[in-house]
Amino acid sequence: MNSVKVSWTITAVLAIMLAFVGFKFVTGSTQQTDDGRTAIMMTAPERDMILSEMRTFLEGVQTIVEAIAADDMETVAATATSIGMAATGGEPAQLIAKLPLDFKSLGMATHKAFDDLAMEATDMGDANVVLANLGELMLRCTSCHAGYRFDVEDEDS
Ligand code: HEC
Fold it and tell me: Residue 23: inside a domain, yes or no?
């Protein structure tokens, strides 16, 4: 092969690789399922890790609801902050690559919304407003749960 052909071949291979990486970035590692949700395929330890984060979300919401009822905005703010953006960044790159872009955006928006909730609790401290905001925030939990589930990928795939 002459050098022009070689450089075209290299360019083509790089372009295909880049397109694949871009495609993966948007779609992640997913499969359609019978129950209408998109399954995100991951290893068992990855699934355990992300489900444990989910339980932390739910525990946080439980503490926040109780604190709102007690008009304890300090606890609301502290708890919301602990599951806000400060709680992101722990996932290994390998797992992040398996998550579809839409899922990642929704996940980030949920963490960010807890920071906003903490700010609302600190600034205004109106229990009814904070509760209404929490209700709206939780639409992110329910809409993501309606669209996705985690499945364990085959060991040898
Ligand atoms: C970006 C998507 C997404 C968001 C946002 C999200 N979840 Fe989840 N969550 C999931 C998926 C997917 C599962 C696994 C469901 C399955 O495999 O059937 C899950 C599972 C859970 C579980 C089960 C944990 C276990 O041990 O099995 C709880 C509890 C939970 N989520 C709580 C929450 C709460 C509370 C919020 C909002 C504050 C939330 N999640 C926001 C995607 C999300």
Answer: no
